Amino acid sequence: MSLVDLILKKRDGNELTDGEIGDFVRAVKDKTMADYQISAMLMAIYFRGMSPREIATFTREMALSGETLTFPSIKDPIVDKHSSGGVGDKTSLVISPIVAACGLPIAKLSGRGLGFTGGTIDKLESIPGFRTELTSEEFTHFVEKDGIAIMGQSASIAPVDKLLYALRDVTGTVDSIPLIAGSIMSKKLADGSDAIVLDVKYGSGAFMKTTDQAVELAKVMVGIGEDNGKNTMALVTNMDQPLGSAVGNNLEVMEAVEALHGQGPEDFLLECRAIASAMLELGGKSEEPDEAEKMVREVIDSGAAFEKFKTMVKNQGGDVSFVEDPSLFPQASFVLEGHSEKGGYIAAINTEEIGKASLLLGAGRVRLEDQIDPSVGIRVFKKIGDRVREGDLLFTVHANDRTRGEAGLKKALQAYEIADHPVKGVDHPVFCRVKRQGGEEVEERVL
Ligand code: URA
Questions:
Q1: Ligand 1 centroid to 148 CA: how many Å?
Q2: Position 22 pLDDT exceeds 80
Q3: Cα of 235 to ligand 1 centre, how many Å?
Q4: Contact 153 CB / ligand 1 (< 6 Å)
Q5: Domain boundaries in the chain?
Q6: Burial code of 359-391, b = ≥16 C-beta within 10 A, e = fewer?
Q7: CATH 3.40.1030.10, applies to 79-324+428-445
Q8: Crossing angle, helix 266-282 and helix 91-101, to 10 degrees?
Q9: pLDDT in tens, 137-147
């Protein structure tokens, strides 16, 4: 079948055969399919969806489009973690050293920002010198020696996802269950991990806006992981407000360093502890959630988690003095304040708009070739349920260009909704866990 016929078949709502999905993935890899044709196919998938069989085949074909990593000399299971994308989500920077300090190796492939969400790789690169492009040999060496390494998706691992990811970002085809599931799980099938904890986000700052959509995405991804022999669990977590306070690359690294010292915003610490504990459970380091949580707290309190973070920074060429003394990070030239225009209670924060405000400042990319400004972003001080008086400080905007700063300030102010009556805050960022039990994906409520 020709490439155009494949697009037409999906556009008209028909299921593609395994062979046709293989042809599509190969055509992307071999560059025999033009970007405009790939974009048309992505849009057809966006609107028509994919059956579970199509998603499973698409994911496997993307995983097989490149190299598959293995770590034969590592005896402990390698537990990976991946987020479906959020605003202010710097959890990987904190969770990875915590879990490594508890004795479970971390070999993590992370992404750059996608759409209005930030990416771990862009955040790590705000540490001067930090290298996120490692060879497979270097990556393996660091994991074997120190139990921790985080690198960007190399061209050799799930290369088709890398091409599709970049196109999705600029063609309005990010928030699709088959495309997100295929993207995340293809990398997980190829990265040598034995078990996976997925952080699937829902809310105004996530690609999945409702808990139902997020639980559906979580079930699809857990199913793919389990069918491919990887013990997989998902935590469905709240993204109706930025996680923690900082949004923007070096601001987020500074907040992550605070969290590694056991300090900083409680919602962020709670989520880091919950995900790290789930990883320790899956990796067989503890049977009970309480015991796992105790281990997590111990490595934070003893400083062992921060030491692991420093080891990773040093191994990967980063200047450790910046994480030892975060005041060394370059600061943005302008700090503009966003004040509440009236008294009341914070009823909602349109978190996607906060993400877009930070893109306006230069914290992310609007075009593929854009350079990131590591020091710009937003610090949020009031969250849902908080009481405010007229004139109270809601957030600060950190900008290197006054005009962009003012545009970001305006956008972020519009994201806040203030009610006259008391509003319930978010008690716990984790909504539920999704696991396979008795051959089926089931959700266990946390709240
Ligand atoms: N993270 C990914 O790796 N891919 C997506 O599609 C979304 C988040």
A1: 22
A2: yes
A3: 16
A4: no
A5: 3-49, 79-324+428-445, 330-419
A6: bbbbbbbeeeeeebbbbbbbbbebbbebebeee
A7: yes
A8: 40
A9: 899 899 999 99
